[in-house]
Amino acid sequence: MWVVARVSREALALAELKRSGFEVYAPRIVERRVLRRRVVEATPLLFPSYIFVGITAQWHGARWSPGIRSLIMNGSGPARVADDVIGELRGREVDGLIELPPRFLPGDRVRVERGPFAGLAGLYAGQAPSERVLILLSLLGAARRVALPAADVKRLRSA
């Protein structure tokens, strides 16, 4: 059975759980950022501060392992994660990293749904850090690149 553990110190938790004989799964994604005009890649957890732990007998050892803050509980025991969910995540891995489908493709027509630019349409121009997207909007007679929360932008259907 798989359970979810909240970690306080990721590397320590992973090492201690493995040393104790638990199977662990910490799915990661690639995150690209521009830092001082250079593209830097990081591989953070898909679910920040959470990992999956395979339990075969007793879960108490995992709960009190160094680096673990808590297990996600369902009453008096840990909440189970279906094997299908873990299989689906592992099926999306390429070279050990989860491939997330792109929300938008460059050039997609999008509309701003919320915020000060609500109702304006533009073109998707790329991804920005922290769940933000870059949109080209026509403002003040010129195309302007604006970073907006991805949740505030919807793709327009093609005609």
Give me the secondary-structure topology:
Layout: E1 2-7, H1 10-19, E2 23-25, E3 31-35, E4 38-42, E5 50-54, H2 60-63, E6 68-71, E7 73-74, E8 77-78, E9 80-81, H3 83-91, E10 93-94, E11 97-98, E12 109-112, E13 121-128, E14 132-139, E15 142-149, E16 153-155
Antiparallel strand pairs: 1-5, 1-6, 1-9, 2-5, 3-4, 7-8, 10-11, 12-13, 12-16, 13-14, 14-15
Q: Can you walk through the features of this model?
A:
Strands 1, 2, 5, 6 and 9 form a 5-stranded antiparallel beta sheet that branches. A 5-stranded antiparallel beta sheet has the order 15-14-13-12-16, with no helix packed on it. The protein has a two-stranded antiparallel sheet with strand order 3-4. A hairpin with a 2-residue loop joins strand 10 (93-94) and strand 11 (97-98). By secondary structure, it is mainly β. It has helices at 10-19, 60-63, 83-91; strands at residues 2-7, 23-25, 31-35, 38-42, 50-54, 68-71, 73-74, 77-78, 80-81, 93-94, 97-98, 109-112, 121-128, 132-139, 142-149, 153-155. The mean pLDDT is 89. It has 2 domains: 2-98, NusG, N-terminal domain (Alpha-Beta Plaits, 2-Layer Sandwich), CATH 3.30.70; 109-155, SH3 type barrels (Roll). It is built from 3 helices and 16 strands. 14% of the residues lie in helices and 43% in strands.
- DSSP, total strands: 16
What general outline do the C-alpha atoms trace? elongated
Main β-sheet description: 5 strands, antiparallel
**CATH domain fold name of the largest domain:** Alpha-Beta Plaits
Helical/strand content category: mainly beta
Question: Helix fraction?
Answer: 10-25%
Per CATH, which architecture of the largest domain?
A: 2-Layer Sandwich
Q: What is the highest CATH level, the class of the largest domain? A: Alpha Beta
Total domain modules: 2
N- and C-termini, Cα separation: 47 Å
Percent strand: 35-45%
CATH H-level superfamily title of the largest domain:
NusG, N-terminal domain
Mean pLDDT value = 89
Radius of gyration: 20 Å
Q: How would you spell out the order of helices and strands?
A: EHEEEEHEEEEHEEEEEEE
Number of separate helices: 3
Taking pLDDT < 50 over at least 5 consecutive residues as the criterion, the unreliable ranges are none
